[in-house]
């Protein structure tokens, strides 16, 4: 039985981790999905290693293949770009239904591969399904713009869009399936073809996605999935002259690299969704019973490994002491390693977070909760949610994205100061504002440098609204018509 058939059938969590425990050599060979097939024959010496974050040891292995995938996507583009909206919508709905049927399988593998809890994994699988359903129906109800220019005779002016071509779709390891499908769904919907590259660190659900495409009868070549490292595979993909657009989600440094790598190819569409260091502003009129859990969820969901996490909390001076104490108590009670908190994704990431905490120690930062973790015992990469205070505004702890279960709490006096502190950061992805004062909601929200502002809520998403960041958090927006802008070329036609 092929590997894909085996993985496809392992449902419950225990069964999947049991299977991993008995793997010969602890190795899983993940084959690239190109031109509608898993390519089974590769020379073994070219495989790359990866690993999983938890106690179950296994090493997915990948192979670098870029050209064959780009070729397959280029070959089918002329046909796919002319397919009807109905055809594209039907195939996307079939994909959504198959993932829905295999929801548990996807959730189990996502949880094992990334370290997230099963509960969190299920939410993300559901969101992946919504990505396909949303764009499947969006294209059936699209509106265009038509105008008449006065004169004798008058002229009809209208906007016409056509698919751009082959896309490189590159995603990070923190929400592997959800973020990749956020790119794949609109790419297919708007008539483009693509080569998707998940992070090599978390590739199993993307591997399963290839099987979904096969079963949904997505024409071969329309979407190819390749595994491999960023600097090798990802970079070669981005630079390929036949790739006409790049939709990338990941770190700011990688985003800059991609921009440099494509600068000469000026017509290549680029959408870059990058990192964040998001502020949570808590004013003195909040209800503690709501504000504390909300700020904690925003800080620690998925172990703080979500680009939208609120990792810098600022609290009004009048409620600062009380907030700190209730927040710490709440986090201690609700976030327990091995239960509601999983391991962080990898050894490399564990070491990175630990380095920031060691730095905090040298700066005499106060650890309100937890301490610098000791070296790992080989039993997974666990970091207890950590709450810091007395952090200097200019410290790297406060300025750089740690992307782990670490939050800082600082104080502000006035509304003006709160806005200044929130904006005093190179990033501008998201922000959270907690207050009951309706006029303040608008006053503050409209001045924060962030692509997304959540007032008294967090992580609420309507897929038609713009998603993306300001400043170092990226260029461009995705979602609804914004995704259409990424994946289509626009021409304005004037007809006398
Ligand atoms: P990276 O930027 O390291 O990697 C992202 C993806 O890019 C991976 O698939 C990686 O491959 C690939 N890659 C790396 N180098 C290159 C290159 N030179 N050319 C092309 N592709 C490359 O980010 P992480 O995976 O570490 O993810 C964490 C980051 O992602 C955080 O900064 C987080 O904020 C951000 N993020 C942003 C979101 C947003 O919507 N704005 C959402 C989620 C995360 P590989 O891993 O295989 O090496």
Structural overview:
The protein is of the alpha/beta class and 496 residues long. The protein has two domains: 7-274 and 474-493, 3-Layer(aba) Sandwich (Aldehyde Dehydrogenase, Chain A, domain 1), CATH 3.40.605.10; 278-462, Aldehyde Dehydrogenase, Chain A, domain 2. The protein is 40% helix and 21% strand. Helix 4 (85-101) runs antiparallel to helix 6 (118-138), helix 5 (103-114) crosses helix 6 and helix 11 crosses helix 12 (320-334). The chain is globular, with a radius of gyration of 23 Å. The N and C termini lie far apart (63 Å). The model has no long low-confidence stretch (mean pLDDT 93). NADPH dihydro-nicotinamide-adenine-dinucleotide phosphate is lined by residues 170-174, 179, 197, 199-201, 229-231, 234-235, 238, 249-251, 254, 257-258, 273-276, 307, 401, 403, 429, 469, 474.
* Count of all domains: 2
Global Rg: 23 Å
Q: What is the CATH architecture annotation of the largest domain?
A: 3-Layer(aba) Sandwich
Fourth-tier CATH superfamily name of the largest domain: Aldehyde Dehydrogenase, Chain A, domain 1
Oligomeric status: single chain
Taking the sheet with the most strands, its summary is: 7 strands, mixed
Number of helices: 17
Helix content: 40-55%
Query: Globular, elongated, flat, extended or rod-shaped: what is the shape?
Result: globular
Question: What features would you highlight for this structure?
Answer:
alpha/beta; single chain; 2 domains; Aldehyde Dehydrogenase, Chain A, domain 1; binds NADPH dihydro-nicotinamide-adenine-dinucleotide phosphate; six-stranded mixed sheet; seven-stranded mixed sheet; globular; Aldehyde Dehydrogenase, Chain A, domain 2; 496 residues
